[in-house]
Amino acid sequence: MVRPYAVKGKKRRKREDKYDRVEEAEEASEPEETEASQPEDVNKGAMVEKQSNGNEGEEKVGNPIELEGIPITPVGLRTKNGPGAIFILERASLEVAKVGKTYQLLNSDDHSNFLRKNNRDPALYRPDIVHQALLMVLDSPINKAGKLRNVYVRTAAGVLIEIKPHVRIPRTFKRFCGVMLQLLQKLSISAVGKREKLMRVIKNPVTQYLPVNSRKIGFSYSSEKLVSIQNYVAAAENNRDFVFVVGAMAHGKVETDYTDDFISISGYPLSAAFCISMICQALAGKWDIL
User: Fold this and answer.
1) Res. 73 pLDDT band, cuts 50 70 90
2) CA trace torsion 257, 184, 279, 166 (10° rounding)
């Protein structure tokens, strides 16, 4: 006599159901074991956070949540004693446009066809100049010694961006474009695990954020005043902050109405990053930063 297939199928289903129930019981028991194994000190040091499920007035105890953002550098060596330096990057090429179905930061390498179709010159879209300049000033010894006050970037469209000295700019250009795209869309970027805004879009003009007793110096190859940057910085007063205005564009001249002096530090055209490196070396020699 042959056993019906239906009985065999039911037995298999029962076994599978039993197997699933065992797995669910094991998974349910895992969090209880991990919570029981945690020491009491961890629960005592937990942070109090606001719930995000609609109950804004209630609070709960839990582990800190990492916010979206970028890391920060150690601040153990930072000090604000004495004069400092502020850098302003003018006419930076940071423009966002919808290419296809996504928004992207325009650059001459990836969007040359898109720019030509819209009657724009691809050679003018160079966000890599801003990237190199920021890496140079934020990695400089004067920043590590705490002498860098702030960095401001003004785009060609007039958008003013404030960048804190202890921010870590992404090393790769692709990640930098992603950070700038997020900044221009959300208007600010916070630190990882903190609510401090490391980069944010602020209101114009930039002069309202500059120290009152500061010396504002503009740089351009077209300037008729050719000086040695080491001698120029060494001869400046020791009790005043420096504000250096450097162009972050591929071609053209920086024209501002708030600079006290307009100089050239080389008889040859220099990139923004190399110009900043010469300025930082001169400041390090003036302030005895090794």
Assistant:
1) low
2) 130
